[in-house]
Amino acid sequence: MSQRRRLHRSMFFGLIGLVHLYVGVRLVPALLSAPWLAGLLGAFLLASVVLMPASMLLRRQSGSGRARLAVWAGLLCMGLFSSLFVLTLARDVALLARAGVFLLSGSLWGGPGLVPVSAYAVVAAALAMSAIGFFMARRPPAVLRVDVPLAGLPAELHGFRIAQLSDVHVGPTIRARQVRAMVNVVNRLEADMVALTGDLVDGSVEDLADHVRPLAQLVSRHGTFFVTGNHEYYAGAQAWVDFLREAGLRVLLNEHAVLRHGGAPLVVAGIADYGAHHFLPAHRSDPAAALAGAPPGAPKLLLAHQPRSCVAAAEAGADLQLSGHTHGGQFLPWNFFVPLQQPFVAGLHRVGRMWLYINRGSGYWGPPTRFGVPSEITLLRLVPAGPDQGKEQS
Fold first, then answer.
1. Is 389 inside a domain boundary?
2. Any stretches that span the bilayer, and where are they (predicted)?
3. Is 111 a domain residue?
4. What is the CATH number of the domain that holds 325?
5. What total number of domains does the chain contain?
6. Can you give 209-225 as a three-state secondary structure string?
7. Surface-to-core class of residue 327, CB atoms within 10 Å of its CB (0-12 exposed, 13-18 middle, 19+ buried)
């Protein structure tokens, strides 16, 4: 590990310690009227400040049972602590506003009991959010059905069905059992093709091959197509590309295939992840190259992990881009940051003459929690556009 990387890691882990200290200072003294609760919270914060960094260090080495247990513990702490931190921050903003009201009006709004009561409320709300988030993350993804209207769609392609999985994140907490369950759901849909739009894994081929192999059982008329996400590059992208090809998946790296469905052509193109060139220069994401030489007039579907590839994809002539990456925000506070990086967060959007659909993720990243953002397997159906649906929109 380089000296710069060690420095960045030390600074990041130091920041984790500081935010834990902040939560402890703001909540534990306010809970001293219930010593058992103050003690439990203090013990949790001490455990969390150790287990969270440990889970990050061990998540790439989670083949052993002990390492997986440590990762599970750290990720559960991360989920609960995220809720505690956000709610503590919101509480402090509210208390600051209360102090402002007091200074302006001379009346003690809310009474002195607001400080301990609000601390109890933060702990209770954080526990509730974590429990709900865990349930939502660990339940099987629901099937979301979406019609996409395309102008000039050949009659033979009316009703063409695409099953999309994205951001499965097979790793320490998502294993073969969950992958088989997703495969069974997709196979029951009897789709015409399956699209896997990146971030399939969080670990090496050596550790996760057996847990990814059930994807070879995906069944559709035209097969399964895969594009890389950023997490493939953290885990050894070329090894995963080779493995998935051997498993029978069609990996598209800035290239396309032409499907013949009822005699009509459909172009299925795929690009490497938006930032792939930082890891493998030969994988630089290139929508124009992916669609070069495609049959003119044929509908063009582009698989691209990150939504922010959409501008280049639209300029290259794609009619529909399928993406993931955002997880729909997944849980607080990350849902506030996704729009700073991506043009759209979830669902169906228009970019010029192109449609963009963003899957909220079939799995989850990091803590096993989803709060208000359910996972999904998407079944997209191509339908002919109405008179106004093929027009360009800004």
1. no
2. 12-32, 38-58, 70-97, 117-137
3. yes
4. 3.60.21.10
5. 2
6. HHHHHHHHHCCCCCCEE
7. buried
